[in-house]
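Structure, all two chains, one model.
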Amino acid sequence: AQSVTQPDIHITVSEGASLELRCNYSYGATPYLFWYVQSPGQGLQLLLKYFSGDTLVQGIKGFEAEFKRSQSSFNLRKPSVHWSDAAEYFCAVAPRSGSYQLTFGKGTKLSVIP
Amino acid sequence: DADVTQTPRNRITKTGKRIMLECSQTKGHDRMYWYRQDPGLGLQLIYYSFDVKDINKGEISDGYSVSRQAQAKFSLSLESAIPNQTALYFCATSDSGVSETQYFGPGTRLLVL
């Protein structure tokens, strides 16, 4: 069965520092890959997605993610974190064919120190 | 996303009561989903619907039922609420194209006493 692992439950970074959130997946074939962000009291907003092509994907709010097939990873990065980036981040995968289900990781909560 | 609305936004109910959570979308999408979110567990799929006549169980459907009244409306019911159904519930939509990107509503926070 497919699974998504986000090994870091909580990360704290200083404002202006770089950020990397890890995501690994277990799947029979390369799935569609997504990162969502959930701000406090809000729904989930799509940051970026990977379907095919360039393995470095640019998203909104200055985020990017890199797909590495050999490592089954899709890590999210941002070169300089802003206080408004404090939120919970979810990695998710979906199959490329068959019955569609989006499988989420358990999330990484990001705190930003001024 | 304002295109996906959920009502109510907050609800307190008692054990054994029947409640309904409603979701409406103006995105024109065929596919709609219901998830629950529990702290530390991420989101889990309850039910999904690919069109009005196509409804499927997700990974945690026990204790829940759904109704797809129209393309734009997808309701989730708890027939007899229990305390461990206390959670944050999200509705989502996607189109039937290749993108498979899901768009989420703001959520309904449910407390079962």
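Chain A touches chain B through 21 residues (CB under 8 Å).
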